[in-house]
Amino acid sequence: MSAFFVSTVLIFAAELGDKSQLVALWFATRYRWWLVLAGVSTATLAVHLGSVAVGLAFDELLPERALLTIVGLSFFGFALWSVRGDRLDEEPGEPRLGARFGAFGVVTAAFFLSELGDKTMLATVSLAGRESSAVGVWLGSTLGMVLADAVAIAAGVLAGKRLPQRAIAVVAALLFVAFGSAALWQAWR
After folding, report:
1. Residue among 153, 123, 136 nearest 33 (CA)
2. 8 and which of 88, 132, 140, 187 could share a cystine (Cβ 3.0–4.6 Å)?
3. What are the tens digits of pLDDT across the range 95-144?
């Protein structure tokens, strides 16, 4: 049980103020809170299961530079999506990507991509290599992440009701560009 508790506390603390909280907050202003939480939970279970497997079996799955480049570029895509919005030719209220994949699929895929190469993913890899219970690390790190992102989802729900949607989109886009730039700088410095 110690692997579970250690992982929960460490990952919760590492996730506070992280870019994936921004992703969760942003989606909470666009979709129902429970869909965002379900998507975040599903993506986190998958990412952390992979992280535990990597931590147990390999030193590195991908070179860090390649992983950070993919993550950085994906954040530029999120920035463009934030500013441009979902509507071009679709019916009002139905997001174009959501029509193809559903809100749950969009949130899950975006959150999964935002977690690749993230500090919480790397922390989970480290914990899995160090702790005796791989299942404890997997479930504990997942719980810590979901709890931290639930805070961001709650903030997104509240912000979405009180702030203009355009202001949220512009701020989110600026933050996505900043995080994407930081990831690319870290990859290529």
Report:
1. 153
2. 140
3. 454 555 688 999 999 889 888 877 778 778 777 876 778 899 999 999 99
